[in-house]
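Appendix C reproduces, verbatim, an entry submitted by the partner laboratory led by Prof. M.T., so that reviewers can inspect both the input and the predicted structure.
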Amino acid sequence: MNLTLLFLLSAVVFFHHTVAIEYSPLGCFKDKRPAKERALRILVKNFRGNLDWNNLNKTVEDCANEAKKKGFLYFGVQFYGECWSDPMAHLTYDKYGPSKQCSHGVGGPDMNFVYMLHGEENECSNYNLLNESDRSEKYQSTGAYKCDHWVHHFKPNLWNRFEGAAGETMAVTPVPPNKCSAFLSGWMDGKHPEVIDGIQSRRVCFTSKRSNCDRSTNIRVRNCGKFYVYYLPNTPGCVLRYCGSGVKQSSLTSAGVTI
């Protein structure tokens, strides 16, 4: 075989084996049978027939890869080698409470050790927090305007999560001008995506006295299960700002289900 071709094939194999899928552990949780009662209802794949008891991390990694192929964000390893997931896993994985019946990163019978995939850009684990109280759409500006263009510590072109007094999401209905410490108040024009939708594009409008969308910019948004993240560019000028909903997490709903 041509030596150059052999080298390239070797490089591809090496690259394939060194690129690891990333995920974070969420903990050990109880489960229940029959199938319709399970916290995670879909058996993605059963690895029990080929377990390496000296390297159960390999089972977790294999489960992560299978879950990712099927578009899931959360997955659990049960009975040492069963890989489970669910489109609604972010709402249900912990519904029966925590457990201590897990070891080496996998669950025992009727126990799930649950993980969350990081996504292509690690957006669900690597983000900035927007949590200022004056970022809430309920905050009445007093003239001391702020701007998400080049000042007040806003970092553009990164993933962001709204939290705390700012609210748990970006505002999704027109926000009157002079709110959230902005002269033109920013809100997302469109619904939040579901977990299985992955990263979606949306438009943010900035409200003035003459229009609910006097200016606009494009953003990206991802449903990470328990929260949303937003990839935000600089606002198109000053003094424009992205406004939070001002709503606490306990009041949030996704497709009619409290999260």
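The two ends are 57 Å apart (CA to CA). Additional entries are available on request from the coordinating office.
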